[in-house]
Amino acid sequence: MLPTLISFASPLCKEAIMTLLFRNLALCLMLMIPASVPALERPKLTLAVGGHALLYNLPLAVALQKGYFEEQGLELEVVDFSAGVKALQAMIAGDAEVVSGAYDHTLRMQARGHALRAFVLTAEAPQVVVAVSSRSLPEYCTASDLRGKKIGISSAGSSTQMLANLILAKAGVRADEVTFVEVGASADAAQALHSGKVDVIAHTEPVISLLEKQHGLHIIADTRHPQGTRALFGGPMPAGTLYTKVSFIEENPRTIQALTNAMVKALHWLRSASAEDVAALVPTDYLLDDPDLYKQAYRNIQPALSSNGLFPAQGPALTRQALQAFDPTLREMALSPAGTWTNDFVNAALQAMK
């Protein structure tokens, strides 16, 4: 007897073969998935930020717009405050778990008995510019000319005030010999200089580019790029970060890792992103009705962005040095940068990306 031949053209045979293939594929996929994937301790989080539309916080905006947090299983509520210090206060009060803000806040709060730690770095330069109005101070020569003037800062205790204080200290001008005026973190801060409410401004992008376009500026210090930062601080200066309470990190390491993974992915995207790419990605209200100005503002700060999220080893100590240079109360304290930052989570994220 001849063997029975099965025709692969038979509809029944095709159906049987496809069913078998799908079953085998499903089994393979199941085997590829670990038997137990630990769940995030805190999949729902509140993140506080001061001036979300500022380019200082661009890596956060990229991670949000690209959906990188959702990819990590996170549901993030972002609360925007008028300044980074107010975002910090919200976290200390328990109204947020994490802050997108300046690294120096961790050292300032250590002096007040709060243990905070930054776990991913977004910029190695503060991106703050200190500039005088050419209209208010047409005869400006040196920083000593700022004595008795009104200086606009985003808020008291902010990085903008830190940089202004450092400029004053180097010129021998005491902080009590000037008047600091809070102008907020939004683009409305530019109006303070236009109106004459302040004579000097310490601020970030895109506020500075807006002022350069609309108002005559004489720039005193520019930390939008590594060269200006090294000239002022002597090396890289950790700036934008994600930070939180040390206790939150210890209790929620998988959640912190997920946040870090998303931010490192955003930094990786920014490494090759053009100004056009960035302008097309961010919400339209970030552009201030002037896409070309926003693109230029991005080009101005692009060199300051961290390429990988890692803290430079000498950076935290330079931050402590800068803070103690102008603040006598901090100068008398034994601040320890060691516990205020970690590269552990970024290193894990980078290893996973290989």
Task: Describe the structure in your own words.
It is built from 16 helices and ten strands. By secondary structure, the protein is α/β, with parallel strands linked by helices. The chain has two domains: 44-125 and 237-353, D-Maltodextrin-Binding Protein, domain 2 (3-Layer(aba) Sandwich); 129-222, Periplasmic binding protein-like II (D-Maltodextrin-Binding Protein, domain 2, 3-Layer(aba) Sandwich). The strands form two sheets. A five-stranded mixed β-sheet has the order 2-1-3-10-4, sandwiched between helices. The chain has helices spanning 11-32, 58-65, 68-71, 84-92, 104-110, 159-170, 189-194, 207-214, 226-233, 246-251, 253-272, 275-281, 291-301, 315-326, 328-331, 344-353, and strands spanning 44-50, 75-81, 98-102, 116-121, 129-133, 150-153, 179-182, 200-203, 217-222, 240-245. The radius of gyration is 25 Å and the shape is globular. Residues 1-36 have low confidence and may be disordered. The longest helix has 22 residues, at 11-32. α2 packs across α11 and α11 packs across α16.
Major β-sheet profile:
5 strands, mixed
**What order do the helices and strands follow?**
HEHHEHEHEEEHEHEHEHEHHHHHHH
The CATH first-level class of the largest domain comes to: Alpha Beta
Task: Please name the fourth-level CATH homologous superfamily of the largest domain.
Answer: Periplasmic binding protein-like II
Spans of at least 5 consecutive residues whose pLDDT stays below 50 are: 1-36
The whole-angstrom Rg is 25 Å
Structural class: alpha/beta
> Percent helix among the residues?
40-55%
Strand line-up of the largest beta sheet = 2-1-3-10-4
| Domains, number | 2
Taken from the alpha-carbon principal axes, the silhouette is globular
Number of helices: 16
Strand fraction equals: 15-25%
Q: Distance between the terminal alpha carbons, to the nearest Å?
A: 59 Å
Number of strands: 10
Shape-level CATH architecture of the largest domain: 3-Layer(aba) Sandwich
Mean pLDDT, nearest integer?
88
**What's the CATH topology label of the largest domain?**
D-Maltodextrin-Binding Protein, domain 2
